[in-house]
Amino acid sequence: MPRLSPTPHIVVVGAGAFGGWTALSLLRRRARVTLVDAWGPANSRSSSGDETRLIRTVYDGKAPYVDMAIRAAQLWRDAEARWQREVFLPTGVLYLFADDDGFAARSLPLLHERVVDIQVLDPREAAGRFPQISFADVRIAYFEPGAGVLLARRSCELVRESVEAEGGTYRSAQARPGSIDAGRLSHISVDDGTTIAADAFVFACGPWLGPLFPDVVGDGIIATRQEVIYFGVPVADRRFDPASFPGWLDFGAGRWYGMPGREHRGVKVADDMAGLPIDPSSMDRLVSAEGLARAREFVARRFPALARQPVVETRVCQYEYSPDGDFLIDRHPQAGNVWLVGGGSGHGFKMGPAVGEYVARLVLDDASPDAVFSYAHFSEGRMRVRGTDRRRLHS
Ligand SMILES: Cc1cc2nc3c(=O)[nH]c(=O)nc-3n(C[C@H](O)[C@H](O)[C@H](O)COP(=O)(O)OP(=O)(O)OC[C@H]3O[C@@H](n4cnc5c(N)ncnc54)[C@H](O)[C@@H]3O)c2cc1C
Question: Which of 48, 163, 314 to mutate to test the pocket of ligand 1 (most atoms within 8 A of CB)?
């Protein structure tokens, strides 16, 4: 592929965590950038919607993700300083294990090597430190003090504002790729009937990446329904504020996670098991009675003070699962100037700024992606899982 000119025009489709940060990183490396989104940054249909997301570096011993999360954490801090707006709540993240703690234990050597503080707590120590949490069925816990909570919707909007403030263009429009000729894409079409030509194109379309590229992505990325429930806290009870309550992941019967509320929104609780496949454009976002009941049962067991508290808000989002839960960050196999960026698989938000930096390097420096993010890896996984129950695969 010929190297791009020093100031190429690049269209980025999708202003979620991946696309927004990619647009900003490309701009900061002197590209001319047009960012396009159908419904807006962190809109209610997108995977980056909702108020908050966890950032952590414990990653099941997977070095590329540990390194990316460490880099992302630095870039989030830089962004906060630049914006002079809070986007990171330093709550720490607590990992609770009823039995097998491999997810954290496998990461320990990597974290120690990279000097990331991670504390191993027995249930008694943990209960002394976090009295609002019941550790009755917990065998071992880990606490990562440098981890925390990101303000998701706010940061996506700040990224979009920065794109415009730093010379990029933002367009609110639905895009379709034009036809690929001689291994290149020359333009996208948008819904007002116009086209946008560019030297290169990045499609960071979250759960829409499969439908947009049915042949090369297609059912390799599936969108699964995920319910999020916010429980109220007792009057004047400060134990669930970000200053006293950490983000947490619970590996017991099922897999749950959550975080303190911000701006008095209640405690966020969500089931991490993949739900049924959905259409992100048309799904009604109403939680199910069954999901509510399971969340309430879990909350009563883990946070006894919240057992009788009402549900104060709910959301329904989707994970955009790749075959192995790995990101897809690579060239389109038939178009050298088109990049496919997606497969966040329920853990992508935190990585936004690092993914943006990474994609800018691939596009502008003609670099090759790590094997784990490559189209070859994605495609091999797609063939392997075809016809299997993808929900079970990820549970
Ligand atoms: C309930 C839930 C909890 C999560 N928790 C965490 C967490 O704690 N930590 C974490 O790191 N990650 C978490 N994630 C995962 C993370 O949120 C996603 O991986 C990430 O937000 C994906 O970002 P994206 O930019 O790829 O996709 P999206 O945010 O979906 O962005 C895609 C954008 O593309 C636009 N678009 C699509 N098609 C077109 C088109 N044709 N033309 C124009 N625009 C288009 C859409 O409007 C959308 O804005 C969670 C996800 C969910 C659903």
Answer: 48
